[in-house]
Amino acid sequence: MNLFLISCAETKISQCQKIILLTQKMAEESETYRQTTDIKKVLQVADLFEETSQQMKQLNIEDEQLQEYQKGFADIYQGNADTTRQFVAALNNKDIDSAKLMQQQVQQLGKKEQDLGTEMNAYCQED
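Above: the chain sequence. Below: its structure as tokens.
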């Protein structure tokens, strides 16, 4: 009976793949908009980040360490959504200082995302 229960549990690798696939999808979709100056498209990216944050939270991840990575990515994506919207608002209000600050925050979130991805990849490759 225990053997059956164990074989039904998802492996660490398959749980890693769920998170990785979602982060790759987000990276590919957001790359399309990186160089745009169209405010509507920038706001679409914010919506995409928020949507991906929600999708990340909804992944069924059992491994406790992977749950931390899952939460980290969800928080980063939500932070990107919020900061991007604040950036657009600052531009619309011609508040250059705030826009620069939001731009720095987006860059910091990007760095956090890279670091988290590197950390998670190392964890996923452990036996």
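Residues 2-125 form one domain.
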